[in-house]
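Propose amino acids for all 207 sites.
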């Protein structure tokens, strides 16, 4: 492996491993911003067709940025919702039978309100557990990248098109190859995950 490629793996691994849970929101919002800005730039000329240059370009750019920003917010809200819904459903499903609430024909009452409250608690818990998963996952990915770049470990790296064609097979090959990693990589993954979780805890503590 060439030295520049090694440097990319090491630096990228340190960033992902130590900051993965903090990079999640910018990454998700960027995924939303890009298509939103593209659509904004595509349809903006219809609304500013009578504007002369250079204001035409400025107007199109402004519309694209606003559309991208809105799409980024929507993408993050949708991302949170996707992770919170299972917790909400689980909370209601578990508490409803205990409280005597019929989910097939729910009637507005205190028991139903309590079940919904438990569901909201479940949604919040699911979001917290999601942070734990992200920290462990990105810590592991970062440790693998550093191990490949710094220690010369051999790990199967899935390609983009192959992942789209057969995601389960590509993931299986990656996991099987990662099992051969030595103790330093495992220890590094644990350290990365702990650093992320501690940084989350410090951020959530009141000043």
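Proposal:
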């Amino acid at each position: 492996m060439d030295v520049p490629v090694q440097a990319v793996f090491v630096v990228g691994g340190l960033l992902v491993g130590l900051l993965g849970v903090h990079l999640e929101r910018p990454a998700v919002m960027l995924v939303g911003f890009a298509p939103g800005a593209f659509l904004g730039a595509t349809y903006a000329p219809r609304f500013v067709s009578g504007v002369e240059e250079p204001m035409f370009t400025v107007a199109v750019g402004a519309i694209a940025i606003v559309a991208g920003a809105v799409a980024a917010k929507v993408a993050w809200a949708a991302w949170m919702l996707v992770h919170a819904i299972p917790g909400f459903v689980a909370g209601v499903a578990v508490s409803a039978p205990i409280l005597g609430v019929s989910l097939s024909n729910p009637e507005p009452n205190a028991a139903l309100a309590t079940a919904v409250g438990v569901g909201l608690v479940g949604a919040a818990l699911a979001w917290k557990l999601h942070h734990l998963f992200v920290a462990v996952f990105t810590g592991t990915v970062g440790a693998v990248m550093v191990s490949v770049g710094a220690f010369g470990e051999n790990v199967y790296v899935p390609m983009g098109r192959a992942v789209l064609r057969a995601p389960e097979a590509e993931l299986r090959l990656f996991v099987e190859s990662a099992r051969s990693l030595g103790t330093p990589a495992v220890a590094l993954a644990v350290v990365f995950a702990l650093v992320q979780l501690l940084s989350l805890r410090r951020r959530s503590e009141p000043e």
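The chain is about 85% helix and 0% strand. Helices lie at 3-47, 55-99, 110-151, 160-165, 167-178, 183-204.
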